[in-house]
Hints:
The complex is a heterodimer of chains A (272) and B (406). Chain A has 272 residues and is an all-alpha fold. Chain A has one domain (15-267). Helices cover 76% and strands 0% of the residues of chain A. Chain A is built from 12 helices and no strands. The longest helix of chain A is centred in the middle third of the chain and has 36 residues, at 116-151. Chain A is globular. Chain B is of the alpha/beta class and 406 residues long. Chain B has 3 domains: 5-60; 99-312, 3-Layer(aba) Sandwich (Rossmann fold); 317-376, Alpha-Beta Plaits (2-Layer Sandwich). In chain B, 36% of the residues lie in helices and 20% in strands. In chain B, the strands form 3 sheets. Chain B has a 6-stranded mixed β-sheet, with helices on both faces. In chain B, strands 11-12-10-13 form a 4-stranded antiparallel β-sheet, covered by helices on one side. In chain B, strand 6, helix 7 and strand 7 form a beta-alpha-beta unit. In chain B, helix 1 runs antiparallel to helix 2 (39-60) and helix 4 (187-197) packs across helix 5. Chain B is elongated. At the A-B interface, helix 1, helix 2, helix 3, helix 5 and helix 6 of A face helix 1, helix 2 and helix 4 of B.
Amino acid sequence: MTAPQIATAGRAGPSRLARACDVLAFEWTKLRSVRSNYWTLLIAAAVTLGVTAIVAQSIASAPGRAPGGPIDPLVSSFLGYGEYTTAPVTVLSVLAFTSEYGSGLIRTTFTAVPRRRVVLAAKATVTGAAALIAGELLAFACFFLAQAILSRHHRGLALSHPGTLQAVLAAGLALAACAIVGVGVGAITRHTAGGIAAAITVIYLLAVLCLVLPPPWNVRLGRFTLPFAAYQLVTLHHQAGLLSPGLSAGVLIGWPAAALLAAALLITRRDT
Amino acid sequence: MSLPPGSAVAIPVLAVAVAFIAWCLADLARAGQVRYLPKWVWAVIICVSVPWGGLVYLIAGKSRPAAGVPLMAAAAGDSGTAASGAPLTRRVPVSPVAIEVDQLTKRFGPVTAVDALSFTVRPGHVTGFLGPNGAGKTTTMRVILGLDAPTSGRALVGDRRYQQIIRPLHVVGSLLDPTAVQGGRTAWSHLLSIAQSNGIGRARAMQVLEASGLAPVAGRRIREFSLGMKQRLGIAVALLADPPALIFDEPVNGLDAAGVRWIRQLFTSMAAEGRTVLVSSHLMSEIALTADHLIIIGRGRLLADTTTDRFVSGTRQDVLVRSPRAGELAGLLTARGAAVRPEGAGGLAVTGLDAPAIGDLAAGNGIAVHELVPRHASLEQAYLDLTGDSTDYGAGTPVPEGTATS
């Protein structure tokens, strides 16, 4: 007797797009309503710009050439960005899920949106988009700051120099990739400490591990890690042993895709 | 109604970000460099710009009223009025939604939390869901809400599994754990985010906030809230979409006297409107005043599924008689078929005869009666009798004083 009434209520319901927008708004409101997110980003940005300025200054004032070969003015713009922005943003994105699991809010979330993969997709989209915006902003800021300092010593690079714009854009993309890896890892681990450790391992420590491998293998395996792929995209002179820029961009997309896939498989199989 | 505090920061930041990148691209276009960009850079540019459009829309876009639910339809003065007098429920008549648990079993490793449990929660009643700690009440509720997957059996809400319901807050409102909130968020942000997830407008969220008496503290972080305030916030979330079914797990914990009365009146009025109300508790005294139907479980099994009235009438009752000639009276009562048990000095606990019959019998035989009291076992006692065998974490049965010496 109750069935037809309920069915009608369901059929009169909203479109798929409207529901997707609802869940995006849900996740966006949750992301922006925690004040510590803003503070973390602000401090990360300040530290990054400071480190970038120091790096640029020391390169600019270095007499002659560095021992490792010619200094790439493009890569040097992102030395601070690569660590002092990526690490805090990764931690924040891991927290997107683990803080909900830790507090129990995840039950409210899954009660409001029982399709858990939709929640995962929305969290990845919102966190990734926020990281992309922050990343592009900071990447451009880092680039202009570093070039302003370098150009006083006539080593600067204009944005219109071939290959420069794509490098700066790729730097922002790399941050979004790390953020989405963080979201996926957070959904997989469900615990903050473990999640942060796992995400930092995937993003940084794998590359560090590859560096200590014997010579042919350090680059052969290393080129598939995120930092190597990101390096290839932000450098002016492409490194021979690494993947081509196109394939490196693929690596940058592959890691978050893999993390999200694993999370999507696990998230519906677990009780909360 | 005020905009949430975040948007004042977010909108200018986003605007500056978009303008900045656009300026960079325009600058490059002027320099004639755009032609030389590889294809994948264009892909990145497109990927970068599309989410911005979406985010700007989400932040700046107007709140959308929920489809199919007349949020602003009815005026004040309706039923379901709460602490501040604002209406909480307006949708009349409610389309009835029954909750049906069918042969539900849930195991956690070797532990069977719920064991072949079947019952139906019907619309128009407040149904009390009782059982000792660890009986499986919360697990059952989690399975109903799609949070835990059943080992076997199923739970249906309005003939569907919870996961199949589109915008489920419009069908079932629930409160499992009021402390399961993030302390860094304000009450308003918490409520608003959940409202957005099911397409519920800001106006309705504000209305529910006012009705729950939390409007003055809407801008404060939840971390500063007392348990009672979190409880009210959780109830506000449950009532957001004005749902025809409600599920509450231990809702009275942490509420003050006014809050307890508020929530009891709320349950009663909700049921009177034809809604389905399932309220769990481990204390009979909390439930007895509001619930008209009882589902009692112990160790995951169904012990009783009955109306409160029938449960009361089925309980143990006897008559206490006190007389200086108790021994003589006991003989007479036994002869009339009553069961008699001595109780204290000159006292008899009589079952099988009612008080007038006992009084008449005593008077007819010239026996003075000093006390004649018909006694009902309390609901609490009846409940303890029923669940006594199935308590997981009970304290051992106390040994009555003096039994060792006799």
